Amino acid sequence: MGHNLIIKLWQAFVILLALGAGYWQWLQQVPLVTLLATSLAVLLAGLPLPLMAAKPLVMYRIGCRAEELGIKVHKKSSLAELASASTLVLTHSRFLNSGEAFITELIPQGISQNSLLAMAASVETGSSHPIAKLICQTAADRHLRLQPVTNFNENPGQGVEAIISRIPVRVGTAAWLKSEDADLSAEFLTRADQLALKGNIPIFVCSDKYSRGLIIIHREISFDTIAALHRLQKLGLKLMLLTGLNKRTASHIKKQTDIDEVRFETLPDQKVRELQLMRTRKGSIALLGDCQLDKEAMEAADVRLAWLPSAQEQPATKALSEETAEEAPSGPDPDFPEEPPVAEVKEKSSSPAGAKPHISLPQGNFLALARLRHRADVGMKLVGQQRTLAMVLCLLLMAPATNALTPFGVPFLDPILALLGNLLIAVFILLLSFRA
């Protein structure tokens, strides 16, 4: 039950008790002044100040301790939601890696390796996706010449497409390219499946409807991340990964990390629907997502988690081995005819404002999240104890305020003393909050 709801129920109970005490005094035919003093004393003794004091300082102290871990809590009330969350949803598999992603292999088909990489980088220039940045950075490290593109279009979770020298070029998943009638050979698809079984991410490149090759990307998942994920599970969080990767790569990640549930090939709108369905049956949902790419999904979650920006905005890269890396051509690339583009390169529209996270975590630090979840859980248990104690003390204070104990020798509690007693209880609860 929510803290605010408990306070409202308490207020309703105190009001009813004050009315009942006044009615009982009216039946006793006491003077009107005594009747009003009784009702006022009950109301003042039952003020919800102690209940209201049970939570804020605890949450504040947990937030201060979170800052020691490098965590920024933008919304203190989200700590209570995090403590009660039953499921942690990850919207991208890249959140699990140690921050290091690199291209392990270029498999061209009918063109050179540098031409394959340059073709993909030319199209990916208009995308802000981490994989797109990785491809572009690798092409820049090899000093490849990129071509101007027109009619750039990005299909979230599937890939990008653009026109290069009047030829449509697509870079993305096999499922998306096949839906666009691309000619992907069975040999290439088998090769991609074999690499995906090892946890690699195959990126297909097509020019017109013909396959031009594969770009193989690998991400490493550290043992520290796996250990932190297991700790989150021991703290009562069910882990779910919603990823756009294919089934084989997603299965490898599930096997490696022991995540409870993995949904593969999920598009952004499907992630939103999945979250809405989960909220109807699984209680509070904490979601770790990208504020820009997962805006709608984050707005559908109870707790929005995001990584803090890393020192380097671009993903880390590794150079290809000397055996696979070829020297960049100094002259014009034969695979890209020198021809002016049909139209001006489409300017990248300004990205819409992303969702604001409730909690920002150090990049890739799941251990910090586990510690915050533990402290939030302990803090909410402490809030529950203080709330119960506040209710008991207020009830003890309200008993003489009702004037019902005078026959047993207990004097009537004056309204001013009732107010002072309520304030003292609130101060006592605040002092107990320093235990957090």
How would the blueprint of this fold be written?
Blueprint: H1 3-27, H2 32-45, H3 49-52, H4 56-68, E1 72-73, H5 78-84, E2 87-90, E3 101-108, H6 113-124, H7 130-141, E4 150-155, E5 159-164, E6 167-172, H8 174-179, H9 186-196, E7 201-207, E8 210-219, H10 223-234, E9 238-242, H11 247-257, E10 261-263, H12 268-282, E11 285-288, H13 295-299, E12 303-307, E13 359-361, H14 366-401, H15 415-432
Parallel strand pairs: 2-9, 2-11, 9-10, 11-12, 12-13
Antiparallel strand pairs: 1-13, 3-8, 4-5, 5-6, 6-7, 7-8
Whole-number mean pLDDT: 84
Biggest sheet details: 7 strands, mixed
The overall strand count is 13
**Into which percentage range does the β-strand content fall?**
15-25%
Could you give the order of the helices and strands?
HHHHEHEEHHEEEHHEEHEHEHEHEEHH
First-to-last CA distance: 21 Å
> What's the Cα radius of gyration?
31 Å
Brief sketch in words of this structure:
This protein is α/β, with parallel strands linked by helices and 436 residues long. It has helices spanning 3-27, 32-45, 49-52, 56-68, 78-84, 113-124, 130-141, 174-179, 186-196, 223-234, 247-257, 268-282, 295-299, 366-401, 415-432; strands at residues 72-73, 87-90, 101-108, 150-155, 159-164, 167-172, 201-207, 210-219, 238-242, 261-263, 285-288, 303-307, 359-361.
